[in-house]
Request: fold
Amino acid sequence: MAVEVMTVEVAEATAKGLVAIGAGLAVGLTGLATSIAQFSIGAAAVGATAENKDMFGLGLLFTVLPETIVIFGLVVALLLLF
Reply:
């Protein structure tokens, strides 16, 4: 009996640990993907602004758009944890 209880406790602890790893990966990988996207968009936005000052607002808007990916990753992590 004691061995079965210990096995169930170990299985529950392992499951909680894997959920925590999944939540961390959800936030971490979306953050990495967003940084890559913002790098490319930011470089293009600076180039467009250098040629035409009126493009600043549009470039800023396009630079902020990938942040929604991180918000989705955070929502997924919160759903996994709670």
Notes: Helices lie at 2-51, 56-64, 67-81.
